[in-house]
């Protein structure tokens, strides 16, 4: 059933993508892409490299709090393996993070799991804070129908409350709470019950970070804030390179931050179709051409696939090393 849902969602995403290309016109999209020179593309690829490196540093800060000391290069490789899985399979964020846990060298997989969960939680918390700012700007400066304003506010409020709830539960033991909750509604999974002690230990590692490493938490939060601003700069520079010089940096901020909502659909590989529709809607909302929005997404996809290719190389090297050790 799940595989069927994934296939259908992927097919719908592909059809949406093809429909958008048809409506905008392939020639118009091609004309926009031609404005990107090789020099410009290399600059954007280098900026993306720094983006991934900063994300790796954030994770390493958390990793070190558990007494682990994998090299930055190794952790960067694990990050790119995660990106490859996220881009090339329907598992999206979940599968990508599982790959990161699996690939990274660590004394215990419970620690690597805990570090990834904390890293992802702080990232989502930071993004949510920026989304709240972006939504506030949209509501204040852009005339919107009352129902749409209510929808924006409701979505952000729900997301913020959900994240605060998750962080609160992580401090006390999120996974054990989930197992107990399932038990209360008469759902008992043998795998979870069998591994309850391991799950409890993982919960303790996660809780430990929040209780004992508040300075590290703040540091990672600030680094992710810097990362988002770097991401906005990337987007803005891409728009400049394709000739959209009329788009202001504050608008690029809104496009980038609100565009991140496209990645909440885990069953669509690389959010195909969803990513495009989200950006086109944002460009239309801000009064800019939808062809520019789609071209931006297309360039971002090309770069993402190139980095995913590098991640696959890292995954192959990991498999070879595993085979040699066994």
Overall body shape: globular
Contiguous helical run count: 14
- The ordered string of helix (H) and strand (E) elements is HHHHHHHHHHHHHH
First CA to last CA: what distance?
35 Å
Roughly how many Å is the radius of gyration?
21 Å
Poorly predicted runs are: none
Strand content: under 5%
Number of strands: 0
Counted up, domains total 1
Helicity level, as a percent range? over 70%
> Structural class of the helix and strand makeup?
mainly alpha
Question: Quick one: biggest sheet?
Answer: none
Mean pLDDT: 83
Describe this structure in words.
With 326 residues, the protein is an all-alpha fold. The protein has one domain. 82% of the residues lie in helices and 0% in strands. The protein is built from 14 helices and no strands. It has helices at 2-24, 26-33, 38-64, 72-88, 92-103, 109-141, 146-172, 174-184, 190-194, 196-212, 214-241, 249-259, 274-285, 290-325. Helix 11 packs across helix 12. The longest helix has 36 residues, at 290-325.
Structure, briefly:
With 326 residues, this protein is an all-alpha fold. The protein has helices at 2-24, 26-33, 38-64, 72-88, 92-103, 109-141, 146-172, 174-184, 190-194, 196-212, 214-241, 249-259, 274-285, 290-325.
Descriptive keywords:
single chain, 326 residues, mainly alpha, 14 helices, 0% strand
Question: Layout of helices and strands, plus pairs?
Answer:
Elements: H1 2-24, H2 26-33, H3 38-64, H4 72-88, H5 92-103, H6 109-141, H7 146-172, H8 174-184, H9 190-194, H10 196-212, H11 214-241, H12 249-259, H13 274-285, H14 290-325
Helix pairs in contact: 2-14, 3-4, 3-6, 3-11, 4-5, 4-14, 5-6, 6-7, 6-10, 6-11, 6-12, 11-12, 12-13, 13-14
